[in-house]
């Protein structure tokens, strides 16, 4: 891996199309902007139309001539995921960046009745990727990049309680959702290889990057002191979102990225240039990966023809 890799090292993306979920702010916004700067056509897949269109305007201001467009997508509602996939008319898709996520929220459920962190971070992206799979398979050199977290190490998934209904602990639930991201990438990479596809499924994480992800949960509960503390930590300890997006951009564009790889910041997984990142052994467990896959198909109703177990 190149020493000090940064956004200026992104290869020319002209003629390529990328979908970036959660592209209205933070790491997703930077990812979308830098892909557009490199010549890609980028769909900003966001829940909030106002913020999505504001992000579109910001990218166009930063990158004159950028080919970007807002498209509505609410990962907490599988009907919205299906509508987004149905509205995607092109026969090809070069990059799918599964970036959007929520962290350490009070217990909530999605429109379909799933615990929100598991529903948004994993199931929404699982369904989206499955529905867009024909486009990816039709595109030479396509990649799927899922944004996980070093916090996956907090907990393995619990197949007997995927929705954390027995004993909800927000950080454990978050860790489980991020483990699910890595297990999904592992199983997807395995199935793609078995099918003889050259689509690359890889994972990345931003380390500690200053975004609104950290403050969303405490803001929902109106915990103002906690929000100030988290905000102070973001200002003092975190790297900027522009640095946090580099592992995702590397996994999406750098030559030679391997299937089922996990890229994060070089310095202790905290900050710095993209580098191979440590992950727990349970995120490469074939049995767990297949069990989660089958359960996710059942929960979302999205099946994956052509990708056998």
Tell me what you see in this structure.
There is one protein chain. With 309 residues, the protein is of the alpha/beta class. It is 42% helix and 14% strand. The chain has an 8-stranded mixed sheet with strand order 3-2-1-4-5-6-7-8, with helices on both faces.
Strand fraction: 5-15%
End-to-end distance, in Å? Answer: 32 Å
Tally of separate helices: 10
How many β strands by DSSP?
8
The chain-level mean pLDDT equals: 90
Shape: globular
Report the order of strands and helices: EHEHEHEHEHEHHHHEEH
Radius of gyration: 18 Å
Biggest pleated-sheet summary: 8 strands, mixed
Uncertain segments are 214-219, 225-234
| Helix/strand/pairing category | alpha/beta
Q: Can you list the strand order of the major beta sheet?
A: 3-2-1-4-5-6-7-8
Helix percentage range = 40-55%
Question: Main attributes?
Answer:
309 residues, alpha/beta, 10 helices, 42% helix
Short description:
The chain has 309 residues and is α/β, with parallel strands linked by helices. The chain is built from ten helices and eight strands.
Topology, pairings included?
Blueprint: E1 17-21, H1 26-37, E2 41-46, H2 49-62, E3 67-72, H3 78-87, E4 95-98, H4 116-137, E5 143-147, H5 170-194, E6 200-204, H6 213-220, H7 224-236, H8 241-244, H9 246-253, E7 262-267, E8 271-276, H10 286-300
Parallel strand pairs: 1-2, 1-4, 2-3, 4-5, 5-6, 6-7
Antiparallel strand pairs: 7-8
Helix pairs in contact: 3-4, 4-5, 4-10, 5-10, 6-7
């Amino acid at each position: 891996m190149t020493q000090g890799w940064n956004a200026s090292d992104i290869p020319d993306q002209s003629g390529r199309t990328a979908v970036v979920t959660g592209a209205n702010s933070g790491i997703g916004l930077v990812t979308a902007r830098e892909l557009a700067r490199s010549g890609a056509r980028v769909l900003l897949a966001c829940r909030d139309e106002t913020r999505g269109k504001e992000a579109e305007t910001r990218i166009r201001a930063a990158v004159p001539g950028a080919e970007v467009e807002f498209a509505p997508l609410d990962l907490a509602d599988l009907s919205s995921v299906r509508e987004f996939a149905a509205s995607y008319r092109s026969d090809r898709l070069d990059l799918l960046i599964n970036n959007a996520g929520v962290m350490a929220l009070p217990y909530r459920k999605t429109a379909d009745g799933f615990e929100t962190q598991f529903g948004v971070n994993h199931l929404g992206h699982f369904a989206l990727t499955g529905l867009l799979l024909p486009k990816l398979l039709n595109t030479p050199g396509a990649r799927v990049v899922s944004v996980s977290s070093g916090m996956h190490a907090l907990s393995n998934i619990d197949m007997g309680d995927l929705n954390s209904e027995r004993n909800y602990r927000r950080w454990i639930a978050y860790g489980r959702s991020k483990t699910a991201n890595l297990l999904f990438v592992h199983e997807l990479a395995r199935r793609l290889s078995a099918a003889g596809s050259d689509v690359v499924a890889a994972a990345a994480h931003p380390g500690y990057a200053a975004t609104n992800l950290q403050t969303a949960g405490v803001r929902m509960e109106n915990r103002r002191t906690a929000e100030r503390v988290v905000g102070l930590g973001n200002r003092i300890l975190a790297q900027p979102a522009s640095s946090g997006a580099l592992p995702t951009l590397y996994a999406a564009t750098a030559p030679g990225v391997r299937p089922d790889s996990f890229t994060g910041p070089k310095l202790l997984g905290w900050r710095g240039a993209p580098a191979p990142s440590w992950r727990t052994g349970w995120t490469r467990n074939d049995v767990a990966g297949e069990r989660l896959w089958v359960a996710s198909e059942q929960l979302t109703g999205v099946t994956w023809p052509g990708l056998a177990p």
